[in-house]
Amino acid sequence: MVWTLVAVLGVISIVAVAAASRRIGVAAPLSLVVVGTALSFLPGVPHIEVEPDLVLTVVLPPLLYASAVHMPAVDFRRDLKAILRLAVLLVVITTLCSGYLFAWLLPGLGLAAAFALGAIVSPTDAVAATSIGKRLGLPTRLTTILEGEGLVNDASALVLLGSAVAAMTSTVHLWKVGTDFLLSVAVASVIGVLVGLLTVLVRGRLKDTVLTTALSFVVPFLAFLPAEELGASGVLAVVLTGLVSGHLSPRFLRARDRLAEEVNWQTIAFLLESSIFLLMGLQLRTLVDQAEDAGQSVAHAVGIGLLASLLAIVIRMLFVAPLVASLRRDADKAVDFRTRLDDLADRLDSGQELPRRFQKTDPKRLEGRIEHGRNDAEFRINEKFGWRGGLVIAWSGMRGAVTVAAAQSLPADTPYRPQLLLIAFTVAGTTLLLQGLTLPRVIRALKLPGDDEAADRAAFTELYAELSAKVTETLTDPTLTMPDGTPYDPAILDQARAFTAARRKRPAPGAVAEGVDPREQYRELMLTAASAQQDALLTIRTTGTYNSRVLARAQSMIDHELARFQDPEG
Fold first, then answer.
1. Measuring CA to CA, how many Å separate 29 from each of 26, 271, 412?
2. 75, 111, 164, 417: which has the fewest Cβ within 10 Å?
3. Are 64 and 265 a contacting pair, CB within 8 Å?
4. Cα-only R_g, the chain
5. 13-24: per-residue pLDDT in tens?
6. Contact 150, 396 (CB under 8 A)
7. Cβ pair 404, 283 in contact under 8 A
8. pLDDT band at 425 (very low <50, low <70, confident <90, very high)
């Protein structure tokens, strides 16, 4: 009964804080940490200790999956270089630099334990940054890079943490750390892709919204558990499963199932995410008391945490500068690359002799590769950003609850352990509040232009015209019949061809032949038309012609149309 009351009050508190945060224009995670911290020091509030396994193995997989499912796979691929640099290379650099700082400031800690703490404070949490950025209209490419970094860097940090913890009890060579890392990535990638593909195929055959959604709740763990059991990165496996599931679901899952699943997962992610940030604040009093009980200086730990926060911020800013320069060089190279592709396309169309490396390539396949490469080049040219976008990325390096939970996974005999936990909390809390509260001002001061809405509207109009043409082609096909082979009644067929006008009226009395169910035939025709649009959109998506914002808008339109006419029982 007590835990039921706690859960009810917890959900009410989370909703209330989130609603208040929206009214005052502050990201909900920041408010929840502040509220949790304040509550932890109230008289009578019990000490809160969260098992690290609860966060790292129960809460983290569904949170990462929920984010990855909504990440456009095309956008992730196009910015993979930037994402990997931030999520892997920056994590390694931060781990090493922070580790040496901790070893210097805490004599007797040991280099292995220092690197373990460095790995703990190295991954960023993109939740607060992206929620702020989306509210203030940041370009989609910036939020994609930040979200992609947040999805992958937990895997990098946890692998490094595992290697550092192992080095605390035995000798671990650098080459073995690198080999283990690559092996972990390879195994996790295979598991993640296979689980994503298989679960989408299985869920697509259920044809029941409740069953499909219920099965989706265990999909993250179907990827996480076997990967961890094989010594690979369960976190990375979950991310890849989410990316594959999100990319394939429009092809294999019904629109009704996708719409219901989206709402359910948004709710689950909101509650889990909010609970973690609230618990993060509630743990502060416990961490302070543990350090005091161990006879260790709280002020010393906080001071080291502040220095580590400053070091992490400086390292990130220094790292982002050459990263942005590299992305701008890629945009410049894309101009020349597009010109070469245009020349190759002209040769192919005119029948001229192709370069030797393309002479044995199938013309249709080569045409697809040209279009694919041209669209990638257009993306890099049109979606490029400069130093202002780089500054936003540099100032979005907030740490979060994963840092606090990972710190608690340190072995019990680790030197200075209570202080290390407090240092990790200080880094997470300082970066989260300092950067999170000032990021809106930074974005407004930079006056960073958002997405080109006029261009998106024009692109959507063009895409809608292509989809509408496919509908017209489908409905005018003389061989069009119902699924059982029965021909459509001419009156119903004419009504469906009118499309929007047909939605506002019915055939005149007597116009439909006796024995024909006009409602069923009209439903089947409209379902056929919407399905034709879905097939066309999936084909268009593979070319990369339109950006993810335009594709998402079209997909939403088609999903609602399909859900309207699909048989609820499949």
1. 9, 11, 29
2. 111
3. no
4. 27
5. 888 988 898 888
6. no
7. yes
8. very high
> Which tens digits make up the pLDDT trace of 5-61?
767 887 888 889 888 988 887 888 888 888 888 888 888 777 777 777 788 888 889
pTM flag (> 0.85):
no
When pLDDT is cut at 50, 70 and 90, the band that residue 172 belongs to is low
The helix/strand/coil state of 487 is strand
The H or E element spanning position 498 is helix 490-498
Per the rule left: phi > 0, alpha: psi between -120 and 50, beta: everything else, 343 is alpha
CB 520 within 8 A of CB 488: no
- Exposure string of 408-434, with b = 16+ CB inside 10 Å and e = fewer, is bbbeeebebbbbbbbbbbbbbbbbbbb
Q: Which amino acid is at 256?
A: R
Task: Tell me the C-alpha distance between 167 and 48, whole Å.
Answer: 30
- Residue 404 identity (one-letter amino acid): V
| 504 has a pLDDT exceeding 70 | no
Name the strand (E) or helix (H) holding 475. Answer: helix 453-475
Q: Is the pLDDT of residue 382 over 60?
A: yes
Both tokens of 341, joined, read: 């592709």
What mean pLDDT value characterizes the chain?
A: 84
pLDDT surpassing 70 at residue 464:
yes
Give the single-character DSSP code of 386: -
| 236 Cβ neighbours under 8 A, 6+ residues apart | 152, 155, 184, 185, 188, 189, 192, 227
> Per-residue b/e over 78-112, b at no fewer than 16 CB within 10 Å?
bbeebbbbbbbebbbbbbbbbbebbbeebeebbeb
- Taking alpha carbons only, the member of 45, 42, 157 closest to residue 90 is 157
Q: Distance between CA 311 and CA 292 in Å, rounded?
A: 26
Q: Distances in Å between the alpha carbon of 449 and those of 78, 99, 128?
A: 21, 38, 20
